[in-house]
Amino acid sequence: MHRGFFAVALVLALVVPLVGCASAKPTDWTGHHIDEVIAKLGPAKRIVPQGENKMYVWEVERRMAAPPTIDPATGRTTPSPPAVAYTSVRSFYVGRDGIIISYTWQE
Fold first, then answer.
1. pLDDT higher for 58 or 22?
2. In terms of CB atoms within 10 Å, which end of the chain has fewer, N or C?
């Protein structure tokens, strides 16, 4: 009996903290103040008035390394500039009190 109780207690002690971590949404910004997002992402690229509310927008260019060019005569390589792969857009709809009402996060 003692052994079974100890085994159950050990399993719960190991599993419960993991369940809490798995259910947390670190990017769920709804209900947070916009200042928290600004502290995390830096200043917004633009702020668009939406009646009494505002839309804060961040755009981040995601770049991919392009292969170097090779001179066929000499065999020397020249690095190529990184190419823009896509632009990630993050928009936050914020109430007058600075609280985030909703957001979109497009990668």
1. 58
2. N
